[in-house]
Request: fold
Amino acid sequence: MRTGHFRCYNYGSCRSADSRAIFQLTSVAPLCPECKRPLVLIPPKNNKQRLFVGIVGIVALCGLCVLAWKIMPKHSQTVVVGKGGGDFRISPSNQKVRLPDEIFADTRLAQLTSAALKGDAITVSKLHASGIDINGRGKNGVTPLHIALLNLNYQAFFILLDNGANPNIKAETGDTALTLSAIIPDHRFLASALKFDGKVDQLDARKETPLMLAASYALKDNVELLVKAGADVNARDARGNTPLIHVFQAMKPNVEIAKTLISSGARADDSNPAGLTAKDYAGAFDNPSLLEVFSK
Reply:
């Protein structure tokens, strides 16, 4: 049994993040005893080689899960999101969804949201023209646009955008319609959010850009949309990770996404504060095909 020095650099921050301790290695990806998330092996200072012990990403629930959990009743819907190509589905235990009048204290705003969910663009336009703030807030700071997105109702999403809904407004969780749309497989949500003045490099609650989110969730179409819209392919999140590093922190890295980022100017040799590059993370999977992207 080996021992090594570890730091919690991979996901989030916790009380172990800035401390160094010795843990016994019993698995490929040891977990932080504080936050139970993957640890990064830190080589001794006198070791000339930057060693890396494989890390398999363990996924925290994304902002969409948090926001949906806060405003969706338990009897209504369960949101399950899988990072890196895992499951993404909304599985209602029955056909009921959270009604807008349970979200919005303003009955007219609830009426506008209900009309959008029903695809009634004419009523939405009339209510908006009558002076109703289409970006009005409800519980947890959500807007009608958030509700349309959480119901995966693209028609409602587009109707609201077409009537002036702002995709850059943050809910109390720190999530906007644009950042949330980056992790939805149906790329129409993201395409429309960008078309209607969505800020391509805005940050979510974890200081991650939409490109990082799409890369983490292995959503190739969304990555391509964001790159085409001018997203910063070398941006860094609060932990110093780049979009390319996010690709290989996913449970199922998408090589095509990595190729897209590199061909668009992503620097493969950029490292995070732990001294680890995207190639280091790719090497953790013991899959030679993942490393081929760095040899071209």
About this structure: The first strand starts at residue 2 and ends at 7. Residues 1-6, 8-30, 41-62, 73-96 have pLDDT under 50 and may be disordered. The radius of gyration is 21 Å.
